[in-house]
Write a structure and sequence with these properties.
About 60% of the residues lie in helices and about 0% in strands. It is an all-alpha fold and about 325 residues long.
Length: about 325
């Protein structure tokens, strides 16, 4: 039997037949068919518990690269949180907070309808999932406010700054929910959380500056207690900030942060009105702090003031009036 004529062989698979009358290509002149595409990179699956929640906090690296690029701090955070006016440690803490919780928030709301994702129950679940990290960031920024308060030449500027920040966060939330469901809702929730933490820093800064202008030497304990009292914590009025009071105040303040974020988030999504409410509520929160009388000094503060006098004799003239006020016990 004669071998088959190469000219009469059928065309290779996946290629259209040559047009009628076209010259037949010589054997071996056709390019080889393309090979299969390489498989996508395998991302390790995060183990999940019986309720579907990951057994560890997620990070941006656990998300698809395209989603992670949209949600990271530099791409998605409102301008108010990325301003150069904040001290570097504060800006870095806000960045770490954002990038540290945004993946968990996205995981919680992805695949959920917009209406359900923005509902109070769903937002509460999201906030409880990231609560420990949010409270930690709040405490870090209170300490930062004592050592590096946000600059302001007058008390009313701290109030105005908080109002502008609250309005800006509310406006960002309104804009965010107009985008794609998963990423937009994620940005809205994380912006609300970060905005509340930033407001705490502004309030702590305002209180720190008040003590410093009275020639006091505040620490994080006394500022935490004042912030809690301004928010309604009823066990610290006119008391020195001892260890037990401070611990109770800090725990109460963290719980209130989560609850306050949920309430304000719902109000901020009301078009236009939400912006006004967000700004007014934030300003009122800082104003409550600054209206409190200064707390009586604890023993540790008196020791710090005495050490300042011993190590800096040039400051004696400035600090002496404060020392007499402390001796009188009125804290002014």
């Amino acid at each position: 039997m004669d071998p088959p004529d190469p000219a009469s062989a059928p065309p290779p698979p996946n290629l259209p037949p040559p047009p009628v009358g076209a010259p037949t290509p010589a054997p071996g002149s056709l390019p080889p068919p393309p090979g299969p595409l390489p498989p996508p990179p395998i991302r390790p699956l995060v183990p999940r518990g019986p309720d579907g929640t990951p057994v560890r906090p997620l990070s941006l690296q656990d998300l698809p690269p395209a989603i992670a690029a949209k949600l990271q701090f530099d791409a998605a955070a409102p301008k108010r949180l990325r301003t150069a006016d904040l001290p570097a440690p504060v800006a870095e803490e806000l960045r770490q907070l954002w990038d540290g919780i945004v993946a968990d928030v996205y995981d919680q709301v992805a695949g959920v309808s917009r209406r359900k994702a923005l509902g109070r129950d769903q937002v509460q679940q999201v906030l409880q999932r990231v609560a420990s990290r949010v409270v930690h960031a709040e405490r870090v920024l209170i300490v930062a406010a004592v050592h590096a308060p946000v600059p302001a030449s007058a008390e009313w500027k701290h109030v105005a700054m908080a109002g502008a920040g609250g309005a800006g966060a509310a406006f960002a939330e309104e804009l965010a929910v107009l985008g794609s469901a998963g990423t937009a809702v994620t940005v809205a929730i994380v912006a609300a959380v970060a905005g509340e933490v930033l407001e705490t820093y502004v309030a702590a800064s305002a209180r720190t500056v008040q003590y410093e202008r009275a020639h006091r030497s505040p620490d994080a304990a006394i500022v935490v207690t004042d912030l809690a009292e301004a928010g309604g914590f009823g066990n610290s009025a006119n008391r020195r900030a001892n260890v037990r009071v401070v611990r109770e105040a800090a725990d109460w303040l963290g719980q209130q942060l989560i609850e306050r974020t949920a309430r304000r988030f719902a109000r901020s999504l009301v078009p236009v009105v939400g912006v006004a409410i967000g700004g007014g509520t934030s300003a009122a929160g800082v104003r409550k702090v600054t209206k409190l009388p200064l707390r009586p000094p604890a023993k540790e503060e008196l020791v710090r003031l005495a050490e300042d006098l011993l190590t800096d004799p040039a400051a004696t003239e400035e600090v002496w009036p404060s020392g007499r006020a402390l001796d009188a016990g009125d804290g002014r």
